[in-house]
Amino acid sequence: MAYKGSTELSSASNPPRAVYGANMFGKRSTTILTSSQVVGQNLWMYNTTDGTTEMITTTYFTDGYYLGMKEGDLIMGSICTGSSVSVYLGVIGPVTTAGCGIASTGGAVSSTR
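Request: output the structure for the sequence above.
Response:
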C-alpha cells in the first residue's frame, strides 16, 4: 500500500505516528550540543506494505513537514507483504513542505523473516 497522507479520507489515511517527542521533557541542552539546528529528537512508528526502497525518496511522506517530522528523526516499523514480515529502522532525511523520506540506502536497517 502506497503512503497516504493524513489529509486523505480517514479510512485511507496511514500517517506515521510520533511515539516519542524530545520536547515532551524540555528543550535540548545547548551546553552539550551547541548546534542551533534542532534535529533528530523524535521517534516515529510507521507500518506499511511498501519496502524501504520506496521510502527512500525525498517526498515519500508527503505531509511529513506538517506532521512535525525533522531531519535526523528516527522512524521504525514493520513491512508486511503476504507472509513476509520485515522490521526496519531508518533516519529521516531533509524535510521540506513537499515531504520527506528515509535519508538514503545507508539510512535504513531491516530484517526479514
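The chain has a mean pLDDT of 77.
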